Amino acid sequence: MSFTVVLVGRPNVGKSTLFNRLAGKKLALVDDTPGVTRDWRSAPGWVGGLSFTVVDTAGLEDVTDDSMEARMRRQTEMALERADVALFIIDARAGVTPLDRHFASILRKSKTPVLLVANKSEGKASKSGLYESYELGLGDPIPLSAEHGEGMADLVEALLPYAPKEDDEAEVDAVAVEASDEGPVPIGDQPETEADRSKPIQIAIVGRPNVGKSTLLNSLVGEERVLTGPEAGMTRDAISVDWQWRDRRFKLVDTAGMRRRARVDEKVEKLAVADTLRVIRMANVVMLVVDAEAILDKQDLNIARMVISEGRSLVIVVNKWDIVEDRAMALRQVEDKLEAALGYIKGVKVVTISALKGHKLDTLLDAVVDTYTVWNRRIPTSQLNRWIEGVLDHHPPPLIEGRRVKIRYVTQVKSRPPTFALFVNKPLELPESYQRYLTGHLRDSFDLPGVPLRLLLRKGKNPFADE
């Protein structure tokens, strides 16, 4: 059993730096610009033999209207209500500010226990701020430096009273293993077993800014889990949410919008896009969300090609379908653009939804599970070799300088994505056009739609043949 620790404080006091320190990896974006974090995100934390769930939140602002800052504050308050203990973080070098005093007065009335943390306490410049923090009425401050890892022993000692008493060594070890798996990671290269089925499907929700990615995640989980609004580019950090639908577990990851590289000039946006690319590389299924009013424009297709090149499975999600008038024409445009840009990977599933109204979300998830199943598929070697014999009889490779390239054997060497090794006497001379023909024939023969297939040409004798 674990407990939950939430990090709160005004902007730019080092909450995300401490979050990364406690999580043991750089999961949250960190920059000197105030307000980089906008949504709250959680991860398994592990420090000094103590295991817990750590939650990073947006900087607290003294606003209560409908602005983005006010919506960020409501997200932080939601995370605070769910926590077992809160760490109220101040900047010891800057001293206690009026905003610190304001929120300290609010936190003193909170039902959630609060510990005061004086961050950036390295060096003499922090001493005056450390002494000032006593006036906040939250008890003795815990001096530490999240950036340098100083003072973590004092933090562990302060958190110990909130740890469950039955948190024995076996459970700590289990959480430590879970912590190492935080974030979207590949599940492996074996056929899906019951044990694999119990593992979450890692889903990355990607697309251009303001196409409804965060709204889709909120609609799926049934709550305002991430910040949404009319402003483009609201999401910066990749926010991971564990969720279950029917008998399957999912890890949904909302990502920052990806504009064309030429338009990305701010440092924070560059960091956010780099984080999105990391999420794509580690996902099982990528939902590419596109706007129904601008379906599959150039940037959408660039993202789709990148997903395929990374070997991830792809589902295209056409959002805001409820506002489309000529739906038949829109679907024909989607088919034409897919054929022109991604004709080499036939069968990519396209699902039309309304994330705001929650329309056809079950259909979307069915498509995700089906695509994931194909991405994991393994084909027996005996079937593959019967298939290649038929292919060679019907359409053998072309002659190269009067001699024919011989394909002796084929086997699947991995899944996720399905990858096949062809043992060829002259692998460098097998034309790319014939390799594309084999890939297409393989896709049709074994029902492998919508996922990338890879052929690896190998030279040598059949490794499975008798000596």
From TrEMBL:
Pfam families: KH_dom-like, MMR_HSR1
BP GO annotations: ribosome biogenesis
Residues given in the record as GTP 2 binding sites: 207-214, 254-258, 319-322
CDD domains: EngA1, EngA2
Keywords assigned: GTP-binding, Nucleotide-binding, Repeat, Ribosome biogenesis
Matches recorded under InterPro entries: G_ENGA, GTP-bd, GTPase_Der, KH_dom-like, KH_dom-like_a/b, P-loop_NTPase, Small_GTP-bd
Binding site for GTP 1: 9-16, 56-60, 119-122
Residue span, EngA-type G domain: 3-167, 201-376
Gene Ontology molecular function: GTP binding
PROSITE patterns from the UniProt entry: G_ENGA
Assembly behavior: Associates with the 50S ribosomal subunit.
Similarity comment: family membership: Belongs to the TRAFAC class TrmE-Era-EngA-EngB-Septin-like GTPase superfamily. EngA (Der) GTPase family.
Described purpose of this protein according to its UniProt entry: GTPase that plays an essential role in the late steps of ribosome biogenesis.
The protein, known as: GTPase Der
Annotated source species: Azospirillum doebereinerae
